[in-house]
Amino acid sequence: MDVLGDPVRRRLVELLADGERSAGQLATAVGAEFGISQPAASRHLRVLREAGVVDSEPRGAVRLYSVRPEALDEVERWAHRVRRFWDGHLDALETEIARGRRRRDDD
Amino acid sequence: MDVLGDPVRRRLVELLADGERSAGQLATAVGAEFGISQPAASRHLRVLREAGVVDSEPRGAVRLYSVRPEALDEVERWAHRVRRFWDGHLDALETEIARGRRRRDDD
DNA sequence: GGGTTATATAACGCAAGGAGCATATAGGTA
DNA sequence: TACCTATATGCTCCTTGCGTTATATAACCC
Q1: Is A19 on the interface with B (CB under 8 A)?
Q2: Average pLDDT for residues A54-80, to the nearest whole number?
Q3: Distance CA B79, CA B94 (A)
Q4: Which of B24, B47, B48, B52 has most Cβ atoms within 10 angstroms of its Cβ?
Q5: Residue pLDDT, tens place only, A79-96
Q6: Residue A96: predicted pLDDT
Q7: Which residue intervals of chain B are DSSP H helices?
């Protein structure tokens, strides 16, 4: 999940959300948006590939990239889990506050 | 969202999923898990704070941190959006493959 | 006030990551 | 075979980010 900490890589994943794209198309796109070179884009793709976020398959002279949804499941579940937990506690807390109970906060 | 690219910060957010914690409790926890010092933990908290992922409120001599669920909504929605888009395309693709149709791929 | 605890900031060093250019590799085509 | 396109890799440089130690700030307690 660390790999998605980079904006270029997140953008690549977004682009792949619409379906498969060739390395060249992706490189052109992020190259234009972020002003980086083809090798730079290629290296980002490698990081995503090695992290299992994307998949790649050679199709003739071109290499097609695609998202592996399972990888994103992990991200989504993480955020969901953390958020939901807290929402629950928030409710509980508000209930207590509504009761006018002062929370004792030791240690 | 870049801020969650760091494992220490993700852990801090996880810890806060259970509810508010003091800076000291958090520093002790991640200090033990990752072997980092109190100032290091404090800086991570600052990054999270400035990114709007967490909130902090002084409670006497202690400073309580808490998660801001909205920030996680963003993460969750991003992953959801990307994943769902692709799931749709995946279905379409599989249908075509099942038909034995060879996809001609020239952009 | 003086000491102690809790937390943040300052100053600095170091390692990792990301960028560029040049080049290798591989496939497609004439 | 020779050449062109597509993509990846090697090498090097530079910036960014994270860590540490020392210190500042602020509240609490005696």
Answers
A1: yes
A2: 93
A3: 22
A4: B48
A5: 998 887 655 555 544 444
A6: 40
A7: 7-17, 23-34, 38-50, 69-98
Q: Quick check: B59 contacting A, CB < 8 Å?
A: yes
Cα distances (Å, whole numbers) of residue A56 to A21, A39, A50, B8: 10, 16, 11, 31
Q: What type of residue sits at position A105?
A: D
**CATH pick for B2-67 out of 3.20.20.370, 3.90.230.10, 3.30.750.80, 1.10.10.10:** 1.10.10.10
Mutate to test the interface with A, among B3, B59, B63, B83 (most CBs of A within 10 A): B83
Q: Parse chain B into domains and list their residue ranges.
A: 2-67, 69-100
pLDDT value of position A4: 96
Sorted by sequence, the CB contacts under 8 Å of residue A50 that are 6+ apart come out as: none
Tell me the chain B residues in contact with residue A27 when contact means C-beta distances shorter than 8 Å. Answer: none
How confident is the model at residue B84, as a pLDDT?
Answer: 77
- Ordered DSSP codes for B66-95: EE-HHHHHHHHHHHHHHHHHHHHHHHHHHH
pTM beyond cutoff 0.85 = no
Q: How far is B90 from chain A (nearest CA, A)?
A: 8
Segment A17-35 mean pLDDT: 96
